[in-house]
Amino acid sequence: MDHLFIPGFTSEQSIVALDEPARRHVAALRLRDGEQIRILNGKGLVGLCRVARNGVDVQLHVVERDLRPRPASLTLVMSNLDNRDRFEFALEKATELGATRFVPLLADRSQHQRVSMDRLRAKAIAAITQCGVAWLPEILEPCTLEAIEWGSTVIVGDDRGSRASNAVVATDVTVVVGPEGDFSDREKDYLAALPQTHRWAIGSTRLRAETAAIALVSTVVALR
Questions:
Q1: Which CATH number fits domain 3-67: 2.40.240.20, 3.40.30.10, 3.40.50.2300, 1.10.10.10?
Q2: Domain boundary assignment for the chain
Q3: What does the alpha-carbon distance between residue 195 and residue 165 come to, in Å, rounded to a whole number?
């Protein structure tokens, strides 16, 4: 079943009027009168709706609603990449897998090009709409390692690290993926000094940044 993101949808609504972008989306899906679609507000509320057409006007009549619990905290901290598409691809896939927060990292060796927060949010919305994820991840402004609020467990990708283990997967996990040129010595020392840091080797080869991000996030999800 198709999904539609309507951030203003509340549990009190029985009829949802559509703005112009939402009407265009429903038109693109070629939904006819009486067919059903699920709507998401990005805050856990999911509504099963029936399409009601009256000429050019389109409304959604709520048939069922379900408030889904907030998932366990999973943050992806990822350095900006020279290739914007690869960076945004990692955000999309992490969102589909259930990441709850995304932090663009200003690493010493990262490409310090401008990050469009509007584009990142649009990519995350497209991901939850495609997959039906009930919670839209929080997307923070780019920052350095020192400005991050770390979870109770920090996972850093390292091809010389240990094997992934569910023994260290907590309810508040932060996955960290460094720049293509690796972290600086200063940043490595900073991460090593965090008492909750664990280094995981994913696979037998050195992975590209976006591949490492997806692999680490999916491994945390699988071990929970």
A1: 2.40.240.20
A2: 3-67, 73-223
A3: 17
Tell me the pLDDT tens digit for each residue of 91-110.
999 999 999 999 999 999 88
Q: pLDDT per residue over 146-188, tens digit each?
A: 999 999 999 998 878 888 888 788 889 999 998 888 899 999 9
Q: Report the chain's mean pLDDT, rounded to a whole number.
A: 92
Which parts of 48-146 fold into alpha helices (H)?
84-97, 117-131
Tell me the residue type at 123. K
Strands 57-67 and 15-17, by their bridges, are antiparallel
Q: Which two tokens stand for residue 86?
A: 């690869």
* Alpha-carbon span 77 to 140, nearest angstrom: 10
Please give the model's pTM, rounded to 2 decimal places.
0.92
Options 3.20.19.10, 3.20.20.100, 3.40.190.120, 3.40.1280.10; which CATH number does 73-223 get? Answer: 3.40.1280.10
CA distance 81 to 54: 47
pLDDT-derived band at 112, boundaries 50, 70, 90: low
- 27 confidence band (pLDDT: 50, 70, 90): confident
Q: Indicate the residue type of 16.
A: V
Neighbour-count burial of 89, counting CB atoms closer than 10 A to its CB (0-12 exposed, 13-18 middle, 19+ buried): middle
Q: Which residues contact 109 (CB under 8 A, 6 or more apart)?
A: 79, 178, 179, 180, 181, 182, 183, 184
